[in-house]
Amino acid sequence: MFDFPAIPSRITGFLTLWWMAIGGCMSLLHAQIQPEVKVIRRLEMVGNYKTKPWIIRYEIPFEEGDTLLSQKFPTLLSKAKKNLINTRLFSSVRIDTVNRHEMVDVKVTVRELWYLYPGLIFELADRNINTWWTDQNHSIQRVNIGMQLLYENASGRNDYLKFIAHTGYTNKVQLTYGIPRLKHYRKWGFGVDLFRRTQKEIDYLTVGNKQVYYKDEKVLLTRQRIENYLTFRPDQNRVFRLTLGFQHNRVEDIVIDELNANYFKPQKNKQRFFMLETFGKINHLDREIYPTEGMALEMSLRKEGLGIYHDLNVLNINLLWKVYHTLPVHNWSFGAVSRIQKQWSPSETIPFYNRSFIGYSDDQLRGYELYVMDGPEYFYTKPHLKYKFFDRTLQVHHRSESLLRAFKKIPIEMYLIFQLDVGRVEGYTDFQNNLNDRWLFGGGPALHIVTFNRYTYRLEYSFNQLGERGIFIHINRKY
Q: Contact, 276 vs 304, CB < 8 A?
C-alpha cells in the first residue's frame, strides 16, 4: 500500500474555508436565479349562496395548483377583486391569504346583492325628471303604471331575466333573457330580447331644439322588435358581441300626411328592417359603476337595413372612451368620458325617427337637459374632478338572516364633483335648431351618491352658455 504524505492542518483549514465560500456563493447565485414563488394550495369561496363557484373562479386569474411569482401575487389578488366587483353580483369582495412557506391558501369572501326585484311600475314617460317637471308641468298623465320582474343572477350563472308590462302614457311589453357565460364554453354567451310598444302621443318634429308632440285618441305609433345576440369574452378585460335583430314600426296616416312626411322613409307609414351590429369593449376600470381609476374603450358598428326590405339603409359608427386617474392628493380623482358618433346613409335622407340624438338616454350634456340635438354626427367630452368625502358601510340588523342578508350592510359613498361638458352636433339646423352646428359648454358642481356597487344618484347644479342654470336630478345612470 502507498503511504500518502500527511496534509498540514493549515492547508486543510484553508481548503475547508474555500469550499464553504464557494458553496455560499453558489447558494446565493441559486437564490438569485430561482426567485421566490408561491403555490396556490387551496382556493376557498365564502358567501356565494346563489352564485355558482365556477362563475367566481373564472374571474380569478389563478387556480389551485398554480405556481406564481411572489412579487406578482399582490397584483393578481388586486385584479381578482376588481374582476369580481365588475360582475355587479356582489356589494363587497374581500380576499384573504394564509401563507404556509411556499404554499398559500386563498379565501374569497363575497356579499351577494339582492337579485329578485318584483314590483309595480310607476315611471315617467319623458326623457328625464327635469323635462317632465319643467316642460310637461309634471302632468300625471305622462306616467306609466304596470308591473315588472327583474331577476338578476337567476340561475347563479350571472344571467338575467326581465319582464315588463305597463300601461298609461305608453303600453309596453318586454321580455329579455341573457346569459354572459356558458358552463362548458365559458367564453361564450347569448341573449334574446322581445319588445312591443304602442303610444297615442308621439314627438314628430324638433323645433328650437325642443320636441314637438301630437296626441290622438287612437294609437299613433306601434313598435315591435326582436333581437338575438352572441357574446365572446376571451378574458376578463375584453368582450365582443354580435347582434342580429328585426324591427317593424308603423304610424297612422295622419303622421305622414299632416305632421311629418319624413317621419319614416318619405310618404311611407311603416318601416321594416333587419339590423346587424358588432360591438367590442376593452375594460381596465377599477369598477364598472362609478370608476376612479383605469380606462375603457368601446366601439360599435351597426347596420340598419340589410337589403331584404328597402325601408331603411343607415350605418352607425360609435366610439366611446373613458379615462380615470386617482390623484396623489387624498381622495381626489380626475376623469373624462368622450364619445364620437357618425350616422351615414349612402343614398337617402335619414328618417326623423332614426336620427341620432343628444339629450336622450345617457347622451346628455349638463346644463342642456331640457333640450335635444338631432344630428347625423356628434362629439362630446365630459372631464370632471371629484372628491370622495364619505365612504362608510351602515350595519343594519335584521331578524331574518336569509331573506335580507343582502341588506345587512349598506355601503354608501358620497362625492363632491366639479364638471364641464363640451360637445357639438353637426347638421339639422332647420326649424330654429340653433344649438346645432356650434360648440356647447355646460357644467357645474354636483353631489353624487353611490350604493351597493349598482345605484347612483346625482344632484347637480348646472349652467350653460345660454345663461340658463338650475338644479337637475339623475337617478341610476352610469357615470
A: no
